[in-house]
Design goal:
Length: about 200
């Protein structure tokens, strides 16, 4: 049984204005980069309380939310009736579990730095997508470790964009692009956030 690292913060997670603004910026960057339509079935990897998917939901038909945290999933479930699309919640650890299905796209916000083997996750994403499907993954630019006040479950202090793009290419993705998506303002400094998009 894995430890729920977010159990103590799930209830107040959406109350952080900086976090909400960051995800709103990421959602806007995804909508600008990807043409979404109501026929699409997306996966939100590391969906948490649904801050990202609730901003994408009005533009697609269904979102499968994948998150290992039962406490975060409970917060998302409470939002289900108000979402703009169909929702399925899967409480699994995608690093160690297999998932069937072919998605039109995979979105993710601030989750990849919690993944030990990002190369393996890119390969898994490639397998889970339909031909022509997309990834839109947002995370921190490389930083010195001061973004998190505690680093439980954190395996990367952000990413170098070019190295992140090379990992996507090695997994078989094409049309890879990175762009600036947001900046998280904290007392310890400003932390840039990027978006990587690519096609299967």
């Amino acid at each position: 049984m894995s430890i729920d690292h977010f159990a103590h913060k799930a209830g107040s997670y959406d109350g952080n204005p900086s976090r909400v603004d960051n995800v709103a910026n990421i959602a806007g960057a995804i909508r600008n980069a990807i043409t979404l339509d109501r026929s699409m079935h997306l996966m939100d990897f590391g969906s948490g309380t649904g801050l990202l998917l609730e901003r994408i939901a009005p533009y697609v038909g269904k979102i499968t939310a994948v998150d290992v945290s039962s406490s975060m999933n409970a917060q998302l479930l409470a939002k289900q009736a108000g979402l703009g699309c169909a929702l399925e919640i899967m409480e699994i650890d995608l690093e160690t579990s297999e998932l069937s299905g072919a998605f039109d796209g995979i979105i993710s916000s601030m989750t990849m730095h919690h993944i030990r083997d990002t190369d393996a996750m890119f390969r898994k994403f490639h397998l889970l997508l339909k031909d022509g499907g997309f990834i839109a993954l947002s995370d921190l630019d490389r930083e010195d470790g001061s973004f998190h006040t505690e680093d439980t479950g954190v395996h990367h202090f952000g990413f170098d964009r070019s190295e992140f793009a090379k990992s996507a290419a090695a997994a078989g993705f094409r049309m890879i692009q990175t762009s600036s998506a947001s900046v998280v303002h904290k007392p310890r400094g400003d932390f840039p956030v990027f978006l990587l998009t690519a096609l299967r």
